[in-house]
Structures are given as structure tokens and as C-alpha cells.
Amino acid sequence: MRVEFDEDTCIGMYQCVAEWDAFTEDKSRGKAILEDSEEVEDGVFSREVPEDAELDAKFAARTCPVDAIRIYDDDGEQLIP
């Protein structure tokens, strides 16, 4: 499972931070940060989701009010949102 985070879309509500510890707050920029990720395109960050964190990652994506977090299965099919 893979997560993609669009930092430009993020509005800094930090609901993802409460759901999954891979997200942290950057209050100076008013954005969340996806830790241990790499930028795959301008402003979009991606990382693999450990098996024991899959549920937390899904909750983080579902709670994002602006759909800045997308979850993909191992075949590349988008699961959330």
C-alpha cells in the first residue's frame, strides 16, 4: 500500500496528524508533513505504508477535509478517496 500527500492542497487542519503518526505538523508553514516520504512531483509526496499502519493511513486519508491524501493498493489502484 502506498500513500500520496499533496502538500499544496493541505490547509493545515492536522486531522491526519491525529490519525497517523507518519504525519506531523509544520505550524510555521501551516501544513502537515508526510515523514519519510519523497517528492514524486511538484508538491506531491509519497511513501510506502507499513502493514501495521494501513488502517491508520486510511483513517488519515478519510479525515482530510480537502482530500490531500490518497491511498493506493499494491497494484496502483486508488482506494481512498
From TrEMBL:
InterPro entries: Fe-S_cluster_ET (IPR051269). Pfam families: Fer4_15. The keyword Membrane does not apply. Keywords: Electron transport, Iron, Iron-sulfur, Metal-binding, Transport. Signal peptide: none annotated. GO terms for molecular function: iron-sulfur cluster binding; metal ion binding. Transmembrane segments: none annotated. PANTHER family: FERREDOXIN. This is Ferredoxin. It comes from Natronolimnobius baerhuensis.
